[in-house]
Amino acid sequence: MALAQVSSNKCSGGYQKVFEHDSTELKCKMKVAVYLPPKAENEKCPVFYWLSGLTCTEQNFITKAGSQQAASEHGIIIVAPDTSPRGCNIEGEDESWDFGTGAGFYVNATQEPWKTNYCMYTYVTEELPRLINANFPTDPEKMSISGHSMGGHGALICALKNPGKYKAVSAFAPICNPIQCAWGQKAFSGYLGEDKKTWEAYDATVLAASYSGPQLDILIDQGRDDQFLSASQLLPDNLIAACSEKKIPVVFRLQPGYDHSYFFIYSFITDHIKHHAKFLNA
Amino acid sequence: MDLYEVFTGSRLDVITEEVLSGDEEHQEEVKEDEVNRDLPTKEAFVVVSEKAETRTFQRFSTDTNDSLRFEAYVPSSDEEGTPSPDSSVDGHDDVFEEHKKSENKVNNIRTKLEEKVVEMENFAGHLEEIFLTVEDNFGRQEQHLEQHYNDVLQTLSQRYDERAAALGEEKKRRLEALYTQLLGCGRTLDASKDLIETAQELYRTEDKRLFLQAVMPTMKRIEEFAKEKPDLTLVTTLEFDRPLANLSDVKTMMDSINIVPAPSAPVINPQVSNSATPTSLRVCWSLFSDDSVEYYELYYRPVLEDTPAADSTKGPDVSNVKVKETHCSVGDLLPNAQYELWVTATNTTGISPASEKAVYMTVPSPPFIRQRECSSCPEAALIRWESRNTNPVDSYTVELIETGTDGQSGVTESIVAVPTCESLIQLQSGRQYLIYVRAVNIGGPSERSEAFTVSTTGTIFHLQQDTAHPCLSISEDGFSMFYGDEELPLSAMTFDDNTFARCVAVLGDLIPVRGRHYWEVEVEEDTEYRIGVAYEDTQRNSYLGGTNTSWCMRHVLTPSRHKYEFLHSGWSPDIRITVNPVRIGLSLNYERGILSFFNVDLEQHLHTFYCSFLHYVHPCFALDNPGALTVRNGVAAPDDLDQGFPNSEYHNTARLT
């Protein structure tokens, strides 16, 4: 699998690079941003996977979140893929900002015309790690996952569906209970069809209620002034209730004054990377 | 003045205990030897480095004669300040090294010389005192002699006066008697003369009739007068009565001049450091005169605060001991007590005047370490104790020994001159130590106190019982607290300035060291608690977390769910926790100004306060509703504590709602 470097910028002593490759899962060219810390020059490093939210590409996180400093200090490689397949020329892919392009929802679509390309779940959990491990000095046992909004939803479901695969998980303003919110319902019905049973496999709240596996330690930050929170798109209370019930350790922080933007991510990304580092560097 | 001459010229001897055996014949010879032995040699004076015990002045040290020997400091050849010739041949670089070496050597020599100067000064001081004493004693001898002879002279003079007076009296008496007799004779003579003239006149009378008239009485008178026998014996004898002068007492006085006088007062030494025990004192004294002494008597009595020491009529009884040597150990005394001692010397003639009174002190009793008031952390321990002596002591000495894992003890380290009953000791983490305390006064150090074990794993503190709210009861071991169900009436509760009055809380006594501290709290799932830290002076009528002087995690149980707050100044961030912690770890880091909370069982970080602590803080604990809480101390902080908590500045909770 060839990785073609698109850009490289020195940052915080390491390198923020962007690569492009032909994805076998998604059947298109995909870009992926990779931050290599200084430690990577000499040693194997753990990998932190970041999943961005609706309308984002691989650029938003690396230019707005300010994660490189903490990644450099903790010696962690950060991989930030795109949020959906691009340039597939599927009809309707650009119609809405919350479905199709830039809104992959990290599922494996079963419905036409999406099922050929929109396999973001497999891409993120299988293809991408293989690609990264083959091309970078990584410790394949040390992976963790995080994300924002739709990406938060993606991080949570990847961790819950793959017990033990991810050593740490956290999220910023995640969509906790997609089957109960407008966004989720729209996306799932489009990608997965009308059978709500198939939706549950990609719902963090549902997955938490039936989780069994190694102990997780989930950190979630949520801006209190987040418009989507008040619009009932995010529904963190449901996830908290399920985790309380199932005794899944979660620390959920409601941050006053913060909204849904990357300014919010920027403010707390260091905390999250430290949280991940505790498990990745253990 | 040449010291040597002083020594030989006046034949000054220090009477050592070996010498003074009361045997006077021997003394002269032995003294001779002593003198010769003690004299400094004629060549250079050499300073002897004194042992530690004899350093403080022993002007009359009877045990050693170190103070009377003086050696000059001669730098040995290996301490030469100049660099050896061969090394200077090498290049430029060696010069600096040599320079440094010589600097060091010069410094060494200088230090040694300074020490020698001090010793020399001490020695001069000794000599001065001895000189004064000799002067004193000889002065006394002179006085005594003068007195003696004066007494004799006076007595003789007195006798002379008496005798002379008696003699004069006698003379007067006799002369008077004779004179009276003379007068008597004169009168008789006159009377006779008178009669004769009368008779003659009568004989010449022509008138025969008158003659016959007067002749018969006149003849009668003459007859009577003739009958009187004049007493011609001398009234007084002609012999001269010479009484014997009774000069026997003068004789005894003259004799006593030749008798050995009673000794001069001995000089009692000041107390030697470290010579006492809690129940005994070792007293030494000396005699700086030629007097012979048969034995000494040492008197002593305790010095009590309320009786003036000078008043010997009241006060405690005086005990005494008779000894032949110039030292004595007095036993059966009280610890850390002052005793007044004085000594007299006695020989066949009599008893010397008493020496000056010296005050000695016995060694104190060992202190008692207050275990419940001691605390520790990985880098230090705070030990508190009490004196257990009625009188104050001079200082304390703290001893610590590191005990290895096999129970072997290491080197004892001592911290001396501790002025108060507490000490903050720096230690190394992850070790075990035994700590002892001794009380020290002029008499020396006491025995060791009971050992106190310190383990520098984790932080150890005790609860400050006197801050506890009356409704809070503390367990026997001092680490658990209970808020009972029973409603205590307000009248049954005793509050004071230090107890919490509203919040059912108590403070811990954290060691005041600005390092990292870690402790754990165990609760039940439904215990409603507040745990965290607070400044010592946090308001006792406030709730923990409600003011800016305390930071705490609070658990509230509502009918629907568990609620967790992280309070400071009454404000808390909105945080949900899904698994209720029953074992909470608290990590305090003064340097970074953070207080973090963890669910220990899950190793889950819960929250971190960012605060720069202006003063030392204490762990605080409260129960909002009846329940129980246990503190776990001496637990090592988990290794990954540093990475676990976030370091964001945005978590600052110093905001008022």
From TrEMBL, chain A:
Q: Where is this chain primarily localised?
A: cytoplasm
**Is Nucleotide-binding included in the keywords of this UniProt record?**
no
The organism encoding this protein is Coregonus suidteri
Coiled-coil segments on the chain, per record: none
Q: Which keywords does this chain's UniProt record carry?
A: Cytoplasm, Hydrolase, Serine esterase
| Molecular functions per Gene Ontology | carboxylic ester hydrolase activity; S-formylglutathione hydrolase activity
Q: Name one Pfam family in it.
A: Esterase
Q: Give its localization.
A: Cytoplasm
Recorded catalytic reaction(s): these are: S-formylglutathione + H2O = formate + glutathione + H(+)
Q: Which family does it belong to?
A: Belongs to the esterase D family.
Q: Which GO terms of the cellular component aspect does the record hold? A: cytosol
For this entry, list what GO says about its biological process. Answer: formaldehyde catabolic process
Give the protein's function: Serine hydrolase involved in the detoxification of formaldehyde.
Give the top-level enzyme category.
Answer: hydrolase
Xref: InterPro entries:
AB_hydrolase_fold, Esterase-like, S-formylglutathione_hydrol
The name this protein carries in UniProt is S-formylglutathione hydrolase
Q: Where is the active site?
A: S149 (charge relay system), D226 (charge relay system), H260 (charge relay system)
Could you say which EC number(s) this protein's record lists? 3.1.2.12
- Check the record and name the NCBIfam families matching this protein: fghA_ester_D
Top-rank taxon, per record: Eukaryota
The keyword Nucleus is assigned to this record: no
Automatic annotation (TrEMBL), chain B:
**Pfam families linked:** fn3, SPRY
Region annotation (Disordered) maps to 74-103
Q: Which InterPro entries match?
A: B30.2/SPRY, B30.2/SPRY_sf, Butyrophylin_SPRY, ConA-like_dom_sf, E3_ligase_FN3/SPRY, FN3_dom, FN3_sf, Ig-like_fold
**Keywords of this entry:** Coiled coil
Biased amino acid composition, Basic and acidic residues: 89-103
Span of domain B30.2/SPRY: 441-639
Q: Where is the Fibronectin type-III domain?
A: 266-365, 366-459
Q: What is this protein called?
A: Fibronectin type III and SPRY domain containing 2
